[in-house]
Amino acid sequence: MTAHHDTPFTVAGRTFGSRLLVGTGKYKDMAETGQAVAESGAEIVTFAVRRTNLGQDADAPNLLDVIPPSRYTLLPNTAGCYNAKDAVRTCRLARELLDGHNLVKLEVLGDDATLYPNVVETLSAARTLIDDGFDVMVYTSDDPIVARELEAIGCCAIMPLGSLIGSGHGIQNPYNVRLIVEQSSVPVLVDAGIGTASEAAIAMELGCDGVLLNSAIAHAREPLRMARAMKRAVEAGRDAFLAGRMARRDTAEASTPFAGRING
Amino acid sequence: MSTPNAPIELRLNGEPYAINQGQTAADLIAQLGLTGRRIAVEINEQIVPKSQLDATALNEGDQIEVVHAIGGG
Q1: How many C-beta atoms surround the C-beta of residue A54 within 10 A?
Q2: CB contact under 8 A, B39 and A97
Q3: Of A86, A144, A180, A201, which residue is least crowded by CB atoms under 10 Å?
């Protein structure tokens, strides 16, 4: 029982059992969103802030009805922001929307084609938000020097991309992710690029504290099944990391003893 | 001289919007059918807390954003 002890995932003083964080975009409807999030076991769930569609049926289902703030830790993102000012405004709107909840996912994008983070604007926004009392989990490139800078200014989690947002190309530079893990004293999560369960497991085997993903579940043929796969992959990858993998060898080594074989 | 209750022009979520003079942010939210909904309001790039919607008068040319939560990653 205690043989499989793990410390809980802690970010900005909040503690969680699950190391899988999921998004709520791209699902076919609210019901599927709610079911996939539940199936994933995630406790931290991202969402976006957008203009209310005026004139629309005010009784239309609201995301926060299927992802209630009483049950989940909501993580507003700044997706769609291309400069620090818009990202800061979006975070302040989100804080008002969630009655003062101050944990945010900061992402400031560089261009439409790559959605690659603009780290100059990201650093600027992070400074403003931290001064304003936000706990900032930050989406960034896999550059360890930028990651170190973001930690130094007070970000509560560093979230390098595995590959481009929505690409499903997995972790393109595991060596950089490992460098960031080794140097950081705040949680490191791979955010973006995970396409399937094995890639989530790899992130955890590299020593990441968690994984944030959305499209890999929402765009799977069966999202609910993939949500469960991701949950198990993150758990398996975490256990494999804690267990410590065997050393690689260049020659074979039999698992079965030679002594006592009938042809001996 | 402006006529009492003559409409004033706002920009609401990026679109022109006319409302009678003397209305508050809370009146606007009520007109939109959004009272009690999970929304956040910003006027001229400043957050207006829910508790202050009642006390916030609207002025000609105000840039108003009303936002809510949607799915995102």
Answers
A1: 15
A2: yes
A3: A86
pLDDT for position A1? 47
Asked if A47 lies within 8 A of B72 by C-beta distance, the reply is yes
Which token pair is A229?
């796969």
Q: Quick one: how far is CA A212 from the chain centroid?
A: 2
Residues from B contacting A (CB-CB < 8 Å) are 12-15, 32-34, 37-42, 45, 47, 49-50, 65-73
- If phi > 0 it is left, if psi is from -120 to 50 it is alpha, else beta; for residue A202 that is alpha
Query: B71 and A25 in contact by Cβ < 8 A?
Result: yes
Catalytic residues of A: 105
Q: Is the pLDDT of residue B3 over 80?
A: no
Condensed to tens digits (0 to 9), the pLDDT of residues A207-232 reads 999 999 999 999 999 999 999 999 99
Predicted local confidence at residue B6, as pLDDT? 80
Q: What is the pTM of this model?
A: 0.93
Taking CA–CA distances from A86, the nearest residue in chain B reads: B45
Q: How far apart are the first and last CA of chain B?
A: 51
Q: How does pLDDT run across A20-67, given as a tens digit for each residue?
A: 999 999 999 999 999 999 999 999 999 999 999 887 666 677 899 999
Q: Which residues of chain A have pLDDT under 50?
A: 1
Q: Which whole number is the average pLDDT over B51-72?
A: 96
